[in-house]
Amino acid sequence: MAVTIREVASVAGVSVSTVSRAFTAPDQVQPATRQRILDAAAELGYSANPAARSLRGGSTGTLGLIVPDIANPFFPPIIKAMQARARRLGYTVLVADSDEREADELAVIAAVSKRVDGLILWASTLTEERLQELAGRMPLVVVNRHVPGIPEVRISLSAGIAQAAELLKAYGHRRCVFVNASRAELSRGKSIQESFEALDLSLHELGPYEPRFETGVHAATLVAAHDATAVIAHNDLVALGVLHQMANLGVNVPRDVSVIGIDDTLLASVSTPGLTTIRIDPEEIATRAGDLLIETIAGSTGGSTKGRDDTSPLVEIGSRLIPRASTGPAPTH
């Protein structure tokens, strides 16, 4: 059997990522550590050449990333950062989107699975059974989706949402609306509901809709019906749709209604008014997700995840509130 990168890491006493850097970015590894890795590789007969790996073990040297919507401005910085990280570790990245539809996601997986060494699925719409079946055939990491037995990257919005609720409470808001734009990320709505209830803030949920600009436009016309003074949107794109339609309706933000997004995309900082939002660091997500997939690939045997069960690796990414001009005191009338 071909020697794996994990075996080299074990003999050298370093991490899998360090072994990868020793071969693809040697300047980032201490000389003594790199020499120890080279010695271990020579002893085991390991080849770091991608073409040789492909001939011996069917490796493609490519990581797959499937996101819900490439057009969402949240994803390009993540894709760019993941490509840079993968390149340093000797991989390339193949990216596709599922449009948040199960049939499309299945079709994309079928198209790319034979071209990659492993997959990262973002907020997958597939059932647990389908995902576990897929994880039994190839290395798999899920983002914002918990499935027993599958390595997971979880974006925790708890801190950012708690800060958002505290800000609205301090500004005197009492009646809020959450525009839900995802059927897959159920934990997001639950987390928001719990944080707002803890501060005695009333929260009415609209949706779930699709996570698009048009969703925010539609939701803005419903906010007045609920007599709400604050809106928190599923993401920045939806929040920007809310801002756009509020302006069309003659509703002043933040004098009449405060608006909060999630993601902290570039558009949030240049919108009018500037969008208060919950920041999620794209570079941290890309680095942690890419490294977790590479480690999963290195530790897999024929793509099987058997034996990991509920002890599968879990990486958690935090969040924080970025206050801008779209939030202010609740109206007194």
Layout: helices, strands, pairs:
Layout: H1 5-12, H2 16-24, H3 31-44, H4 50-57, E1 62-67, H5 75-88, E2 92-97, H6 102-112, E3 118-122, H7 128-135, E4 140-143, E5 152-155, H8 158-170, E6 175-179, H9 186-198, E7 202-206, H10 213-223, E8 230-233, H11 236-248, E9 258-263, H12 266-270, E10 276-279, H13 282-299, E11 314-317, E12 320-322
Parallel strand pairs: 1-2, 1-3, 3-4, 4-5, 5-11, 6-7, 6-8, 8-9, 9-10
Antiparallel strand pairs: 10-12
Helix pairs in contact: 1-2, 1-3, 5-13, 8-9, 10-11
Structure at a glance:
The chain is of the alpha/beta class and 333 residues long. It contains 13 helices and 12 strands.
The total beta strand count reads: 12
- What proportion strand? 15-25%
Per DSSP, the total helix count is 13
Q: Given the C-alpha coordinates, what overall shape results?
A: elongated
Head-to-tail CA distance between termini? 75 Å
Low-confidence blocks of residues: 51-56, 301-309
In angstroms, what is the radius of gyration?
22 Å
What number is the mean pLDDT? 87
Q: Sheet with the most strands?
A: 6 strands, parallel
Structure characterization notes:
This protein is an alpha/beta fold and 333 residues long. The chain has helices at 5-12, 16-24, 31-44, 50-57, 75-88, 102-112, 128-135, 158-170, 186-198, 213-223, 236-248, 266-270, 282-299, and strands at 62-67, 92-97, 118-122, 140-143, 152-155, 175-179, 202-206, 230-233, 258-263, 276-279, 314-317, 320-322. The strands form 2 sheets. The protein has a 6-stranded parallel beta sheet with strand order 2-1-3-4-5-11, sandwiched between helices. Strands 7-6-8-9-10-12 form a 6-stranded mixed beta sheet, sandwiched between helices. The radius of gyration is 22 Å and the shape is elongated.
